[in-house]
Amino acid sequence: xxxxxxxxxxxxxxxxxxxxxxxxxxxxxxxxxxxxxxxxxxxxxxxxxxxxxxxxxxxxxxxxxxxxxxxxxxxxxxxxxxxxxxxx
Length: 88
Fold this sequence. Notes:
The protein is mainly alpha-helical. The protein contains three helices and no strands. The protein is 51% helix and 0% strand.
């Protein structure tokens, strides 16, 4: 039988959080979501030389090819957003 989760009011939850108390007993991690960070698969065809370069850089810093692509895309998108905001 599953252990019943402790329940408290939203106000009590907020107070405990604001006071720096451990609130993890009141969270349902199986239902947790990260809005705006849902994953969606995208296929991109790249030239062989580019994949080789990505693999070398990923190996150099100790991450996967997918990780380095995501980090670099994120960095570029953020810099474009900043540049666009400055030009308004």
